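Can't paste images in this forum, so I'm doing it all in text. The chain is below; anyone willing to post the predicted structure tokens underneath?
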Amino acid sequence: MIARWVVGVASLSVVGTTTALGAQPFEGAITMRMNTGAAAGAPQPEIQYLVRGGNLRVTMPGPGGGMSLLTIASEKKSYMLIDAQRSFMELPTTSAQAALDQRASSAGAITRTGKRETIAGMECEHVLVTVEGQQTDLCLSKALGDFLNPLTSMRQGATPAWQRTLVAEGGFPLRVTGPDGTVLLEVTKVERKSLAPSLFSIPDSYSRMTMPARR
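Text version of the structure:
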């Protein structure tokens, strides 16, 4: 499971956590629940996004403290931190523009509905993404920067069209509802607060691991 997640995340490019020109960049914590495809009634994992100065830390729960994806803007590098093993891996990345060109070309048709909603205290606009006649509803906020989905790499197959759309459209989804009405993602809390710089660095006690080879 660790290897699959690492390899999948490595294929994604972190576009960044910038906001609209002239807006104050977001700093703080975003908590969300994501549908992992588990059996009905099973608890959905809570994922925490930490954002500071263009740096990003996404933490997934798990045994021994779980795993975190750490992106350091000044280094233009991403790392996987495995707390249970007190280790880390450096992940290869591609340019943001290359990712934008690749994913935007295969994104679904986008329809802005003009409908707005407040979720977790943040306003968002509903955008419909249509692929092969199937519509996914995204309620997008422009105040939280861009979005990286760490769960995509845990599944086989292509990146979902709604996630590719985010790269072309920009914005952070506060809720994603699938064609069958299933809530795929929902933000439950947004906290604007100052975060310690140490959260966005690799602990000195962690040892480097080698990136697993792709099959």
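The longest helix spans residues 2-10. The chain has three helices and twelve strands.
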